[in-house]
């Protein structure tokens, strides 16, 4: 597996369909759909480089503000936690007291029970464009913008009683979406200035050569 900067890899794959290191073909026509986010490596980098995570969050906030869009819930949360951590160290509070631990525990429990309702939400219409699958009884859903295409695949597979979510492809504007794409990413890159809801189609997976 190769871990590289995503923005650099995306620029490279705009003109190539091979791995930048070993030159093996990733995919003939949709190489961008077959790259994934290495969260473990990202966490390691954040721990090794002081201030990098805070700088990244700042850039993301500026990006969304520039587009006139609301900052996603996870970025808000990471920013607040980082700021609180830095403030405590500046004030010499290196050891939190018992009350602080209790409040943190209660806040975490409340956050866990939130089920991402405080996240930015996306309205979706899931349409079937294949005669081999049936349509959903309730095709209109609303969920967190941080949900991924993989989450939608699992949702559809469960509703249609499919043996595996890997049997599905999900498309936007007739383009197959990568399983690691968040709905926020899909809206910004594929739906852009169109009105809600985000229209997605699903069909049986097609193996492209």
TrEMBL record:
GO terms for molecular function: zinc ion binding. Transmembrane segments: none annotated. Residues 139-203 form the RAWUL domain. GO terms for cellular component: PcG protein complex. CDD domains: RAWUL_PCGF3. Keywords: Metal-binding, Nucleus, Repressor, Transcription, Transcription regulation, Zinc, Zinc-finger. It is found in: Nucleus. The keyword Metal-binding applies. This is Polycomb group RING finger protein 3. It comes from Merops nubicus (Northern carmine bee-eater).
């Amino acid at each position: 597996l190769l871990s590289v900067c995503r923005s650099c890899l995306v620029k490279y794959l705009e003109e190539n369909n091979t791995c930048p290191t070993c030159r093996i073909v990733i995919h003939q026509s949709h190489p961008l759909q077959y790259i994934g986010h290495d969260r473990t490596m990202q966490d390691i980098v954040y721990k090794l480089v002081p201030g990098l995570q805070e700088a990244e969050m700042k850039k993301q906030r500026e990006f969304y503000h520039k587009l006139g869009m609301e900052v996603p819930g996870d970025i808000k949360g990471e920013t607040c936690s980082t700021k609180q951590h830095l403030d405590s160290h500046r004030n010499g509070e290196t050891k939190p007291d018992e009350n602080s631990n209790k409040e943190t525990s209660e806040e975490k429990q409340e956050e866990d029970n939130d089920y991402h309702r405080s996240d930015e939400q996306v309205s979706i219409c899931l349409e079937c464009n294949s005669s081999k699958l049936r349509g959903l009884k309730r095709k209109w859903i609303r969920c967190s913008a941080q949900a991924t295409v993989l989450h939608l695949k699992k949702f559809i597979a469960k509703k249609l009683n499919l043996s595996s979510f890997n049997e599905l492809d999900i498309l936007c504007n007739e383009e197959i979406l990568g399983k690691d794409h968040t709905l926020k990413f899909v809206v910004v890159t594929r739906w852009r200035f169109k009105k809600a809801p985000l229209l997605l189609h699903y069909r049986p997976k097609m193996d492209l050569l």
